[in-house]
Each structure stands twice: as structure tokens, then as C-alpha cells.
């Protein structure tokens, strides 16, 4: 038996790690029973989801004790994200659920006062082990594949703070806001990363390859080492994300294509006869996604706008697109469309959690919830802001972690001449007067792809969704969609002030300077664009070069293994 094993305990996207191993040319087996763990020569624990769910599943499947035995045997172990956290005594995420108790300490929630939580995006590692003060870092010298100053993809709300007691375990740290946490653990046969190497592009694949080529126990005392304590920098090295969005729908011939709307209309302009033209076809989804990965996109979002007249679980072409994309694209993938409770043609009920699970197993890292989030918030507000526990947002966040849930907001401006005429909705001043000279507006949330307005404003929606467990806001704007006139900065600024979770700016990008303005004026974590990337009007690398020239941190592209 023996060989490389992956520990799949049933939570989150492990397909991406499997694809990364295949890309590196390694065969592996899945752990299917407790005995498989002890049979392994190398073991990877690809932790995805919440600490409590992960550790309870380990216990329920009788994996916990064999896993402890395996680690004590000295054979190579790699833990990723929750696979790192599970080695500790416990976590504030689930205080009553014990960890594996291999490393002393508790996983802590990030302080939310100075930054968005979850910590979601690309951040830099600082190598604390050195041969001496001037020599290259110990990490690179010992072939762990991690290079000082490289950024990797993180997605978590909880982390292990760096302390003197954990120095012997710490290989690298990362700063987020004013907090420093352990991002790489290494001692003897154990190598763990808080970041996701399988989602960190080619830089992350190098880390995986280094572990797979290693021999097992690595001595931490073979040379005279210096532990260089990390210093809190005036500003962390957390980068701004550039996200490529692919609106996917069925064209008139029944094929799934990437399209792009002008204020949500995806058909070509008619010739004046009043008849709409064909659905805009801007390319094949898998090919475009691969192109964006190679061009430096930090994430890729698929929004399936076909509407799923039937059950999304039977939408085999979209699931196949996810599966094929994750084979060659090693950055995070988000999928939106149909994340709700549905009844299939045979009358069987599938919960939103089931639908999300199928997407995760097909290669998605996050799911984007649109119309169903609006309906859930209406219910939440009608129930005096009491959580029901049964919404798509709550159930998916509970099972997979808040970082897996993105809320896609489709608002439109409603101008008013005074707050009294806003029907109690959250009103903001605007520098862009309405048709009658109004200098106030509120943003009405819509459903069904913008076709139907609801009596709920964006401020109500985003604050409620955060309370329900969502981890990120994808903030569109119907008035800006397809205009290439820049993002709606007033809307974005207002939402950023309202929530403590990351916000993605969307709708309106047409030039490089639009990205600079949205990052500088709103401090948003990410900016998304579609048409200008599809048509190569503004290449992704041009955006990044423009931002770097203006001292805005972005990820450099590592183009090869």
C-alpha cells in the first residue's frame, strides 16, 4: 500500500488540491477509512471550512486517533488552513470542540476594529528562521518552496497569533492589520500552511512540490539558526485583488457562452426594428478562465445568469465547466446562480446547502447568493432581526465557513428630494443629481437579474447578511453596468462603512484609473471587471502595472513552476 494520501472529510473544495497534485505529476489515494491513514507514506490534510465541523467530522469518522498516531510516527504530514488549526488545542470559532492537541495554544478570532474579516486575499509571508542576519532565509535554504516576500492566498477569520512559546513551531508569519499570526508551521515531519497553496498560483504549487519531494523529518537544529522576531510594520502587505468575472448563460443555440450586458441586457443592440439581437458571445468559459489565470487575475467569478428553470444540480454543463476550469486554474473560483432550495423535475427537494456542496465538489471555493439573499433578509427583518438558522446563508456558512458565502447585490438608484420621501430607507447625498435635480438617493435591491425591485435597501441587505454569516459582498450597480464610466464610489463608500466583511467593487470599470480611484477613495478589498478584460480593451497586467506605479499593492505574477 503506502504512497500519498489525501484526507477528505467531506467539507469544502478538495478537488482543487487534487488537480494541483495531478498538475505536478503525482498520483494519490483518498483516505476512505481510518486504516488508510496509517498506511500512508505521506499525508495531506486539506482543511476547508469551519474548525468545529472539521474536527467533529474527524472524530465521527474515527480519523482523529489514527491521525495523531500517523503524525507521531515521523512520516511527512502537511496541513492546509484548517489542517493547520486542527493541530492546536482548540479554537475560538468553536470553543467547546477540542482540536487534536498536538501543538499547545488556541486559534483566535482576528480583531475586526482595523480591518475586514475574513482575511481574504493575497498576503506576504515573513520568514522568521534564518541561518544568520544577512544570509538568505532558512525556508528557501531548506527547500520548502516558500520565498521571502512572496504573496499567497489566505481565506480565514481565525488564526494562531505568533508568541515566544510557539517559536520552535514557527517558520513564517504574516501581518494583517496590526496583528501578526503564524502562516507556516514546520517542526520535524510537520509542515502546515495557513494559506492555500493550491489556490496561490504557481507560487503555491512550488510549495506543494517541495513537500512532495521532501524526505520527511527535517531537523530544525542541523545549523545554528536565528529566530528573527517579526516586527509590526506601519502597513501590512495585504494586496488588492483584481477579479475577472465571466457572465455565463445559454445562447440561442443552447451552448454555454461568456456574455456581457449593458445595464443587464446581454443581447446585441437591435437595428431599430425593436427586435433584440443574439446573445453576445465573448468566448468559451473554460478557455477564458485559463487565459485570465495566466494573465494574472487574482480570482475568477462565474455568474450563471441562465436562471436555472430546472434544478441547478442537473445543470451538468455548468458543473463540467467548474471541473475543467479547476484542472488548470489555481486561483480561487466563485460560482453564482441557483444557490437556493430547489425541487428537481422528479419532485425531490434539494437544499441550498446541497446545491452549494455540489458546486464545491466540482471545484468552486465560494458561492455567490443573489436573489435568495434578498428574500432571506426580508424574512430576517420581518422576524425582528432574529436568525432562523435555515437560510442558505446560515446553513452554508455553518458548514463551510463564512468565507465560502458571497452576497451578490444588484441595486439601482432611487432619487428623492428629501429623506421623508424615501419610505424609511437609508439615504445618502449624491454629487450626481437626479432627473429633477435631486441631491439625495437610496439604493433599491433587485431580484431576478434586476427585473424586479424590492422594498429593501442596500444598507439593510448588507448589514443583515453579515449578521447572518456571509463573508463577502460583491457590490454591483445596475446604473453603472456596461457604461465603462467608473465604479459607483458613493455606493461603495457607504457599504464599506456599514460592514466589517470584505467588499468587491463591481460594475462600471472602463480604464486603469477607475481601479485606482476605487481602491484609494473607498479602501475596498477587491475590484471586479468583465467586458474590458474579455475584449482586451484593458488587460489585467496593464491594470496591475498602473496600480504598482502608484504604490498600490498588487500580486506579482509567477508565470512558471
Automatic annotation (TrEMBL):
<dbReference type="InterPro" id="IPR013785">
    <property type="entry name" value="Aldolase_TIM"/>
</dbReference>
<dbReference type="InterPro" id="IPR004651">
    <property type="entry name" value="HisF"/>
</dbReference>
<feature type="active site">
    <location>
        <position position="247"/>
    </location>
</feature>
<feature type="active site" description="For GATase activity">
    <location>
        <position position="198"/>
    </location>
</feature>
<dbReference type="InterPro" id="IPR029062">
    <property type="entry name" value="Class_I_gatase-like"/>
</dbReference>
<dbReference type="InterPro" id="IPR011060">
    <property type="entry name" value="RibuloseP-bd_barrel"/>
</dbReference>
<dbReference type="GO" id="GO:0000107">
    <property type="term" value="F:imidazoleglycerol-phosphate synthase activity"/>
</dbReference>
<feature type="active site">
    <location>
        <position position="410"/>
    </location>
</feature>
<feature type="region of interest" description="PRFAR binding">
    <location>
        <begin position="370"/>
        <end position="371"/>
    </location>
</feature>
<feature type="region of interest" description="PRFAR binding">
    <location>
        <begin position="530"/>
        <end position="531"/>
    </location>
</feature>
<keyword id="KW-0378">Hydrolase</keyword>
<feature type="active site" description="For GATase activity">
    <location>
        <position position="196"/>
    </location>
</feature>
<feature type="binding site">
    <location>
        <position position="476"/>
    </location>
    <ligand>
        <name>substrate</name>
    </ligand>
</feature>
<dbReference type="GO" id="GO:0016829">
    <property type="term" value="F:lyase activity"/>
</dbReference>
<keyword id="KW-0456">Lyase</keyword>
<feature type="region of interest" description="PRFAR binding">
    <location>
        <begin position="507"/>
        <end position="508"/>
    </location>
</feature>
<keyword id="KW-0028">Amino-acid biosynthesis</keyword>
<dbReference type="InterPro" id="IPR017926">
    <property type="entry name" value="GATASE"/>
</dbReference>
<keyword id="KW-0511">Multifunctional enzyme</keyword>
<dbReference type="GO" id="GO:0004359">
    <property type="term" value="F:glutaminase activity"/>
</dbReference>
<protein>
    <recommendedName>
        <fullName>Imidazole glycerol phosphate synthase hisHF</fullName>
        <ecNumber>3.5.1.2</ecNumber>
    </recommendedName>
</protein>
<comment type="pathway">
    <text>Amino-acid biosynthesis; L-histidine biosynthesis; L-histidine from 5-phospho-alpha-D-ribose 1-diphosphate: step 5/9.</text>
</comment>
<feature type="region of interest" description="PRFAR binding">
    <location>
        <begin position="408"/>
        <end position="410"/>
    </location>
</feature>
<dbReference type="InterPro" id="IPR050064">
    <property type="entry name" value="IGPS_HisA/HisF"/>
</dbReference>
<dbReference type="InterPro" id="IPR006062">
    <property type="entry name" value="His_biosynth"/>
</dbReference>
<feature type="region of interest" description="PRFAR binding">
    <location>
        <begin position="481"/>
        <end position="482"/>
    </location>
</feature>
<dbReference type="InterPro" id="IPR010139">
    <property type="entry name" value="Imidazole-glycPsynth_HisH"/>
</dbReference>
<keyword id="KW-0315">Glutamine amidotransferase</keyword>
<dbReference type="GO" id="GO:0000105">
    <property type="term" value="P:L-histidine biosynthetic process"/>
</dbReference>
<keyword id="KW-0368">Histidine biosynthesis</keyword>
<feature type="active site" description="For GATase activity">
    <location>
        <position position="81"/>
    </location>
</feature>
<comment type="similarity">
    <text>In the C-terminal section; belongs to the HisA/HisF family.</text>
</comment>
<comment type="similarity">
    <text>Belongs to the HisA/HisF family.</text>
</comment>
<dbReference type="InterPro" id="IPR014640">
    <property type="entry name" value="IGPS_HisHF"/>
</dbReference>
<feature type="binding site">
    <location>
        <position position="338"/>
    </location>
    <ligand>
        <name>substrate</name>
    </ligand>
</feature>
<feature type="binding site" description="covalent">
    <location>
        <position position="81"/>
    </location>
    <ligand>
        <name>L-glutamine</name>
    </ligand>
</feature>
<comment type="function">
    <text>IGPS catalyzes the conversion of PRFAR and glutamine to IGP, AICAR and glutamate. The glutaminase domain produces the ammonia necessary for the cyclase domain to produce IGP and AICAR from PRFAR. The ammonia is channeled to the active site of the cyclase domain.</text>
</comment>
<dbReference type="Pfam" id="PF00977">
    <property type="entry name" value="His_biosynth"/>
</dbReference>
<feature type="domain" description="Glutamine amidotransferase">
    <location>
        <begin position="6"/>
        <end position="202"/>
    </location>
</feature>
<dbReference type="Pfam" id="PF00117">
    <property type="entry name" value="GATase"/>
</dbReference>
